[in-house]
Amino acid sequence: MGLINADLRLSNPARDVKPLHVRSLVDTGAMNLCIPEHVAVQLGLVELFKREVTIADGSTRLVPYVGPVAIEFENRGCVTGALVLGDEVLLGVVPMEDMDVLVSPATQTLIVNPDNPNIARAIVKQVRQQWLTAS
Fold this sequence. Notes:
The chain is mainly beta. 13% of the residues lie in helices and 45% in strands. The chain is built from three helices and nine strands, in the order βββαββββαββα. The longest helix has 7 residues, at 93-99. The protein is globular, with a radius of gyration of 17 Å.
C-alpha cells in the first residue's frame, strides 16, 4: 500500500482564529496527531505539556504537546491534542478512531466508516451499578 493522504480542516476551539485546510499524511502506525510548528503558531495553540517521543529512526526527543485542536474530515470531527514535530501534518489512529474513519485499502484513501455513514459511532462499556456500590 502506498502513502495515503487526506484533506483536513484544523482549528482552535479555544481561540477565534481562522481554520486551516491542510493535506495530511494518514499513518495507521502512529497514535497521535502531529503538526509542524508553523501550524501550531497559525492556530495559536498553547503548549500543555512536553512529551518524549521515539521517532522512526529510533532516536528520542522532547517535543511540545499542544491543544486543543479540532479536526474535521468530511462529516466527522473530534477535538484532541497534537505533538509538534515534523514538516507535515500526520493523522494517527487515536483521532481516526474518535472520528470513526477508516483507511480503504482498495482506494488507498481515508473514508467515513461505511457502516456508520451519517454519524460517528463509538464503542463504550457501561459499568454495572452493582460493582459501584460497596457490599
